[in-house]
Amino acid sequence: METDSKIESHLQDKIEELRNNFPNTQDLYAEVCVLLFFRHGITPTANRLYQLVRKGSMSAPAEALGKFWKDLREKSRVRIEHGDLPEDLNVAAGEMVGVMWAKAQGLAQESLNSLRADAQTSIQEAEARMKDADSAREMAQQNLQEATITIKNAEFRIGKLEQAVAAEIATRVALEAQLTSVQQDRIEQQKAMGDARRDFSSELEKLREALKMTEERHKAVESRALLEIDRERTIAAKVQRELEKARSSATDATDKLRVEIGILQDDIGNQKQRNGNLEGELRAVNILKSQLTAELNLERESVIGLGSQLNAMVMKIEVWKSKAFDTQKELESLISTNKQRRSRKIRGAVV
Questions:
Q1: What value does the CA radius of gyration of the chain take, rounded to a whole number of Å?
Q2: CB 98 within 8 A of CB 350
Q3: How far apart are CA 191 and CA 185, in angstroms?
Q4: Mind listing the pLDDT tens digit for each residue in 18-45?
């Protein structure tokens, strides 16, 4: 069924064609009345006619409309004019043909209205379903965008955490390097002390004579060396404790970061799964929209078929008119035959 805008456009196109074929104002208004009433099932009014044609004064469409209704009433009642036909038979035959024509016209109009109503309902339902599909698709796209933003935020946090882990690892490596350096210094000091002790033993005999003279100095040197050794041991122990503490802190931080990374990775997995579900829903919505578009196209093709059915109904009306005309001819032939028989009887009686 055509929408109001399409009907209006179709009327304007037809009226422009009629303007070229009917330059007379009254003839043009009469043809527009026929177009509205018989082609589109619209009851013509003077205002409607003037809005469509815009020609002549306001009295022109009113006059044309009055003539149209008068002609229609005349055509709805067929009169059989014959001098020898009884008046009752004249009236009965005319009313019979008029009723047949009016009945055919009423049935065609009812069928047209029913087809239009059914087609309009189907199109409205298809349009409503398409709007629902569009709304669902927009919702799915919005959810997909939100999920994408959440994934990006999670990936950003993971990057920050990975940077923090890298910094902790670098700190631990630096402390381990420092501890290695301290241990190397200790080894070198111990080696130097061993060398000094060996040298001291080799020189012990040589210095035995001077032992008394250098004993005090030797004790002072030995005391100082022991103090240096104890100090180095204290420093090494302190560094070892700090390294152990740093290792423990780095291990705790690493474990904590690993737990947070695991949680974020689980969140990312869930978000990606939800993203996949949303994409699946979006594809389903697009498929539904394509199906609804196909259904709408089928409904439009059905409307074209309804137009063909309307043309067929118009042709049926013409057939009924032809049958009515043939009935009138048969009645006239019957009257003529009766007249001839009556004339022959009268002539026979005279002879």
A1: 56
A2: no
A3: 10
A4: 998 999 999 999 999 999 998 888 889 9
